[in-house]
Write a structure and sequence with these properties.
Layout: H1 4-14, E1 19-23, E2 31-34, H2 35-51, E3 59-62, H3 68-80, E4 83-86, H4 96-110, E5 114-116, H5 122-127, E6 137-139, E7 165-170, E8 180-184, H6 185-198, E9 206-209, H7 216-229, E10 232-235, H8 238-243, H9 246-255, E11 259-262, H10 264-273, E12 289-292, H11 299-309, E13 319-324, E14 331-335, E15 343-347, H12 348-353, E16 366-370, E17 374-375, E18 379-384, E19 397-403, E20 409-410, H13 414-420, E21 421-422, E22 425-435, E23 438-444, E24 449-451, E25 454-456, H14 458-466, E26 471-483, E27 488-497, H15 505-523, E28 529-533, H16 548-558
Parallel strand pairs: 1-10, 3-4, 3-5, 5-6, 9-10, 11-12, 12-13, 27-28
Antiparallel strand pairs: 1-2, 7-8, 8-20, 13-14, 14-17, 15-16, 18-19, 19-22, 21-22, 22-23, 24-25, 26-27
Helix pairs in contact: 2-3, 10-11, 14-15
């Protein structure tokens, strides 16, 4: 079994002039990089790590924006046999105080030997280091010498073994790496082999990605898989994409992209924000799979995306789904490749009160569940109850998985590792059910809101709130707060409003009332607490997910409890 470094070196030897990566950055011409370019740039970083005294197997934290430095330093660490881990850069969507606390926690728990960052961020890094810190060096891009004649054969990364740790991913929902997911060469190779088969990956494919590399979807599907498999990758900045979402569609059209991965919110964001004038000449007919992944998939999001871009060549058969997590390297299931994604209309009331997915009949209040597909070849899935018992088909419980690509453990966290496993099976913390051999995800265990005995998933509430005109695309968050008077939880919706500062109090009141009406009608939740805010209020995790706990804390701090 080839390790990362060995696979990269093989591509370099066999196809040095083959374009591996087309690097896109706003305001600059697209930059094609061959495997020779990639390996030579990585080689310079590997030698820099060697000169600074890093040892193979030690952890290197990368805190860099979308840049060639990020690409080269990541693979430089791999070539040197170090363990790279990408941490997000501080942006406006992350709470600064939480980010700094997470950085300090990251350093304390992960015990990296080196941090790679920019001069302007070096003081933040230094401030997070205690006198006893494991960090021996803070390396800046300007300190790396230009590529010299490569001596790959001498690099220790080529000598690493299949069961050695190759990288750390962070669990989604955390800003830093308090729970660093340690993955071996073998686990990643097993994932890439099984997942490539599941999506029918071929050398003719072109992957187009805007996803951040500090999240498993971006790192694995949108970075490592294409580059290690010899598949062309078109890579753009997530920040450029947010500012101009049409960039993704334009890149697919220009490079005849065949595969992309999107979290569910991105389907809504693209459908709502892309203007017709940005789509002149765009042809999306090359897209054979646009894979919804990373958060519960929504039928309504797929329909909105399809209807918006159908006239530009998007085919319904291209809509696909995937259930994934960092702890399994990436994919657990895949749907929509060999046939349409299964839609399961079920009774909303019984899903909430009895945790059963009962097929609906005429007159029932329905929720259309979108299948995440079937487990990939090397992964088994069970749905279990509180005592670990197997639940019948269509009963909601916790998803448990068993595969040959599971994490080696949470890095330096044996307690968390032991808690996450039961009889060799990994307990995901996700709720869902199975029907006809397919997996349906209902939400996160920790996010569940219980109102009067009903199980409410915040994603359902958020989807309804975001459908109201005037609510900023993808910018509504729902959570529960304790109502001591009633003895149960009460649902709160915080929604960012377009042109908030220009709206009158009467207009804001009308919008809040409409959110209450839409949510109450569509969810069987009598929504009372709606808090409207301007753009930028809602905190998200580094992976773009809603940081519900952080937003709940801020709401309680600024607004107060249920009587507010």
């Amino acid at each position: 079994m080839d390790t990362f470094a060995q696979r990269l070196y093989r591509h370099y030897r066999e196809n040095p002039d083959r374009v591996a990566l087309v690097f896109q950055q706003a305001g600059q011409p697209d930059l094609p990089l061959t495997y020779a370019d990639l390996l030579q740039g990585a080689h310079a970083w590997a030698k820099a790590l060697e000169r600074r005294g890093l040892q193979p197997g030690e952890v290197v934290i990368l805190i860099l924006r979308h840049s060639l430095d990020l690409v080269y330093s990541y693979f430089g660490a791999v070539l040197y046999g170090a363990v790279p881990s990408i941490m997000p850069f501080l942006t406006e969507k992350l709470l600064p105080e939480r980010y700094r606390a997470d950085l300090a926690s990251l350093v304390a728990v992960t015990q990296p030997a080196a941090v790679i960052t920019y001069p302007e961020f070096e003081p933040e890094v230094r401030a997070a280091l205690s006198p006893e810190s494991s960090v021996r060096m803070v390396l800046l891009p300007g300190e790396v010498e230009p590529p010299s004649a490569p001596d790959f054969e001498r690099l220790p990364g080529l000598q690493r073994q299949p069961d050695d740790i190759v990288l750390l991913q962070h669990s989604s929902g955390t800003t830093g790496l308090q729970k660093g997911v340690a993955l071996s060469h073998r686990a990643v190779a097993n994932q890439l082999r099984a997942y490539s088969a599941a999506i029918r990956l071929s050398p003719q494919d072109v992957i187009v990605s805007w996803l951040p590399l500090y999240h498993d979807m971006g790192l694995i599907a949108g970075f490592l898989m294409p580059l290690l498999s010899g598949v062309k990758l078109v890579l753009m900045s997530p920040f450029d994409w947010v500012r101009a979402p049409a960039r993704l569609l334009q890149a697919v059209s220009t490079y005849r992209g065949t595969l992309s991965w999107l979290p569910n919110f991105a389907y809504n964001f693209l459908a709502q924000k892309v203007r017709d004038r940005d789509l002149q000449g765009v042809d999306l007919s090359s897209w054979r799979a646009v894979i919804n992944c990373s958060e519960p998939m929504r039928y309504e999001s797929h329909r909105a995306f399809l209807e918006r871009f159908r006239e530009y060549g998007l085919r319904e058969s291209a809509l696909a789904t995937c259930y994934a997590m960092a702890e399994n390297v990436f994919a657990v299931t895949q749907g929509g490749i060999d046939g349409p994604v299964t839609v399961d209309p079920v009774r909303l009331d019984l899903l909430q009160t009895e945790r059963r997915a009962v097929p609906c009949e005429e007159g029932d209040t329905v929720i259309r569940m979108l299948s995440a597909g079937r487990p990939i070849a090397n992964t088994r899935v069970r749905v279990v109850g509180p005592q670990g018992e197997d639940l019948p088909e269509r009963e909601v419980g916790e998803i448990a998985i068993l595969s040959d690509c599971l994490l080696s453990g949470y890095y330096h966290r044996p307690d968390a590792t032991a808690e996450a496993f039961r009889g060799g099976w990994y307990l995901t913390g996700d709720y869902g059910y199975m029907a006809g051999g397919e997996v349906y995800i209902t939400g996160r265990k920790k996010d569940l809101i219980i109102v009067g005995g009903k199980n409410i998933y915040p994603q359902d509430i958020e989807e309804l709130a975001q459908s109201v005109p005037g609510v900023h695309a993808g910018r509504a968050v729902a959570f529960g707060i304790e109502d001591t008077e009633s003895g149960t939880e009460e649902v709160v919706v915080v929604a960012e409003v377009e042109e908030y500062d220009r709206r009158t109090p009467e207009e804001l009141q009308a919008l809040a009332d409409e959110i209450r009406r839409v949510v109450t009608r569509g969810s069987a939740v009598a929504l009372r607490l709606v808090h409207l805010v301007g753009q930028g209020w809602i905190a998200k995790t580094s992976s773009g997910k809603k940081a519900r706990a952080a937003n709940r804390e801020r709401y309680l701090r600024e607004v107060g409890g249920p009587a507010a």
